[in-house]
């Protein structure tokens, strides 16, 4: 069953975040993941929280998403993202 990581990101250091994007993309590809949404236009339809940068990544399964998250190759990009952005990240099982 597919799984999705849904991310809401507030970038605090755009230059460092561009470096993160390049590094993260390579690690996702090596884990068979693909971007479904990567920061396009967003608008609030309900609620009062303004949209930030939204990213949705599809994985083969929850196990493959966790394997990516915990991988050695993602360790450095993850640390960089944590320094240059405020992130809410959710792993959810698909249908």
Secondary-structure arrangement, i.e. CATH architecture: 2-Layer Sandwich
Number of helices: 3
| Number of strand elements | 4
> Which of globular, elongated, flat, extended, rod-shaped describes the shape?
globular
SSE sequence, one letter per element: EHEEHHE
CATH class: Alpha Beta
Alpha-carbon distance between the two ends: 7 Å
β-sheet strand percentage: 25-35%
Would you kindly provide a written description of the structure presented here, covering whatever features stand out?
- 16% of the residues are buried.
- A four-stranded antiparallel sheet has the order 2-3-1-4.
- The chain is globular.
- It has one domain (3-42, 50-93): 2-Layer Sandwich (Alpha-Beta Plaits), CATH 3.30.70.
- Helix content is 40%, strand content 32%.
- It is an alpha+beta fold and 95 residues long.
- It has three helices and four strands, in the order βαββααβ.
- The model has no long low-confidence stretch (mean pLDDT 95).
Short account of what is shown:
The chain is α+β, with helices and mostly antiparallel strands and 95 residues long. The chain has helices at residues 14-30, 62-69, 72-84, and strands at residues 3-11, 34-38, 53-59, 85-93.
Key structural traits:
40% helix, Alpha-Beta Plaits, 95 residues, globular, 4 strands, 4-stranded antiparallel β-sheet, alpha+beta, 3 helices
Topology of this structure?
Layout: E1 3-11, H1 14-30, E2 34-38, E3 53-59, H2 62-69, H3 72-84, E4 85-93
Antiparallel strand pairs: 1-3, 1-4, 2-3
């Amino acid at each position: 069953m597919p799984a999705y990581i849904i991310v809401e990101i507030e970038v605090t250091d755009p230059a460092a975040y561009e470096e993160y994007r390049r590094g993260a993309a390579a690690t996702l590809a090596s884990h068979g993941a693909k971007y479904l949404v990567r920061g396009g236009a967003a608008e609030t339809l309900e609620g009062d929280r303004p949209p930030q940068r939204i990213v949705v990544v599809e994985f083969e399964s929850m196990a493959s998403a966790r394997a990516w998250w915990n991988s050695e190759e993602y360790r450095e990009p993850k640390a960089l993202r944590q320094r240059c952005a405020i992130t809410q990240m959710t792993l959810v099982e698909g249908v």
